[in-house]
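Give me structure tokens for this 957-residue protein.
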Amino acid sequence: MRYAWIGLAIVLPACDGTPDDAPAPDALPLDGAAVVDAADVGGDAIVPTCGDDAALPPEVTRTDERTHTVSCDGAATALAITTLDDGIVRLRYGAPGPEPLVPVERPLGPPTLAGRRGEALVVCTPSLEISVVPGSCALVAKDREGRVVLEDRDGGAFFTAEGEIGVARRLAEGERVYGLGLHTAKGLDLRGARVDLWNTDAYVDAHKGFPPDAPNLYESLPFYVSLRERRALGVFTHDTHRMRFEIGAAAAPNELRAVAKGGAIDQYLLPGPELREVLRRHSRVTGRMPMPAPWAIGFHQSRLDEPCDGAPSERPFCSAAQVLEVAKRFRDAKIPADGIFLDIQHMRGFRTFTFDPIRFAAPDDLFAKLGALGFHAHAIVDPGIKIDPGWDVYAAGLEGGHYLKSASGAPYEGVVWPGPSVYPDFSAAKTRAWWSKLAGGMVGRGVSGLWIDMNEPANFAGGTVPDEVTCDGDGRATTMAELHNAYAFFEAKATFEGMKEAAPTERPFILSRAAFAGSQRYAAVWTGDAPSTWTSLSMTLPMLLQLGMSGMPFAGSDVGGYSGREESTPELFARWMALGSISPFFRAHAEKDAKRQEPWSFGREVEDASRALIGWRYELSPYLYSVFHEASETGAPILRPLVFEFQDDPRTHAIADQAMLGPSLLVAPILAKGARERSLYLPSGRWFELHSGASHDGGKTLTLTTDPEPLPLDALPMFAREGAIVPRTVRMAHAGEKPDAPLLLDVFSGARAGSFVLYEDDGKAGGASSRTLLSFEPTGDGARLRATREGTYTPKHERTVLRLRRVDRGVGSVKLDGVTLAKDAYSWDANARSLVVDLGARATFTLEVVYDKTLDEDGTVKVPITVQVPAGTSTSTAIHVASSAWGWTHRPLDRTGDVATGTLEVPRGKWFFYKVTRGAWSTVEKDATCAERSNRSALGGAAALAVTVERWADGCP
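Here you go.
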């Protein structure tokens, strides 16, 4: 065995030692390993010892060709170990071969430090010590504390079987596994699951979408994170061929196997020990999500409507006029929205990059009118190009040699929406350049986003493009067996570059159905053709969490489900809307035969719930935008599992029906049909219900209930952890409506200090930006709050208002930037139990507050209410409210003309139901058609209620 030792200018905790005057490494009489790219010995760099052997050269020369790799020649295979920057380690099994198609970053750091311990090769990084047994090349990786984080099975990890290659590693007792992209594995912990990675158009007509046990879905992300005794390690397998992962399968319950149909086992070890460090390192290798424009994180509406000839009323997206009517209704209904998606019905005969000459005769005009309403238009772009010699796009692609080829050398022909079609070979640079210009042309017409669908690639004749179809491979001829999983990656890359070139100051938005590791650099994704069922809804949150843990943070689902009518009910849509409102990508979409799924399509109650849920997302936009920025810089999930924030709490390690939205907000959407209660786990510490400020101790399960009534349709349990700072703003119709809207800072007091980085910018690519560090620090007699800003962007807020929650017993004093404020310069809201300070136009500040930090019982809260009664209601009649909060008795309000006002005293932080009457049930409110109106509902908090009564029961026939 020979080793190559190359200089490393740091001393490592796991591999410490001292320089020595021993001979050069070539003098070591060790067998079983070979040196790869051995460097020259000499120079004056000092090398610390790795392993127990002190026979290391005292000096080495660093050259431009310095090596970072050592290799073990085993009986079954060779293993090359390459150390990269930031503690990342690459493991490549087998003989050297071509690099995988999808490029990754390999950040070089100090050269490899290697040594020996007994007969074992030892390789050291700042985070890991890897020991390799000669002969078998079996390895064990330990962290800086000497604890095992990865371990090959006995005899070595590598194996071959029936045309497949793979590696098998031991699973420790209690070890958790997360990630691997989009799949139907149940829950969060993948232990016991098999995950196949082969991008697939998974729609099955019998299920009206993908089946709940579909073996393959749309996005193949061969990256998982293991959590062993609360220490995390990520493993990314860089291979685009068909793969499967068996995580403790029945045949080998204590092994994790990664198996590939081709290529090489080329893996990257991404050390933690924190989960966020694993995801950060993964994003260094595969790339990071670009910062989206503010409107991209708003609400979007979409629908597939075809054929449109004689379309029924349930097909509202069949013409430019209909699309405009949908957009106008959002504004009339005061439901916020930013995006309208045009599905394939906008095309001329399903020809990509075209518009129907009758129904969408003037697309530029349509996009301008949508823009005037504050909407951004998105158009679908399918890769299947209709075979039509008279169509310029097809003809140009044929002339340029841009299509995938069959064995005969002729363009491969499949069948998709246009009928017989050909497929661009996105693995060819010239084809990507051609496609980029076409994509840029859509931007030139006024499209803000492009939706690249059907890019698994789908094929109605056989499911997909056959493996033997040939492609360019960026100059290295290959087949679809290798390109298939990466097809969408290259399409997204070409689309992104074309949009960027067409509008350099804008941020491209692309939504892609299929993806591979690295697609996050160019596109958002969604969960595909999920049927409108409760089963599908219950699967969606775990899917989004797994995507986030797989390095794909910008993800969402089709709110309401894509297809099927039987379970498409008002309740299902409302619950899905709640989940959508906390999803990174937020869009309602359905196919042509599904029920209409605009927010008003399921009646008044669901419309009101949708308005509230979407509106709340827009209020949270400063917080959410900042979390997106964190994801763009660190690879952190936006919607993240609880374990990501509470890794040291074993009770969070498998929770899949709750999530953290960013670092501060715990969300627990209601996912069960007819739910009358919702149980959720709060990690240790104090938590506050976000709307009411109701306080809860963590470290235990909390059950929220409205039994015997079902939970309200707009219910979305959301809690802030103590010390959290949550920037908000006022509700608005779309992201750009109120550029000078006030900034509202909700600060949640407690024993835990907290901070948050508020990110703001001008929404442009490469434009001005600023970061404001907001911090909360408890003091002996109160708290200190600070804001410091850096950057080139000056926000346009008309003012900043800070609310410290909770302050139950009043305020002693308030200092702003060292000056004690007069009592009338701030307010204490005894009902909301909050201190409110209007900071004016200040961008930075220090606020010191003296207050009694005792928290009283939540008790009751007085909810202000205003009721608009029908014109003509007798002025001598008192207006009442009957509520579940006081046994459904009728309590009067004050009345002036057609308006009644008052307060409802209800338990803080609990939902209650109510109706407006004139003092008796015979006079209860009805809707405009005299139909029974569902009970109104609200959460017990200080926010005011505004109600409009349409009719009274005694005025109906």
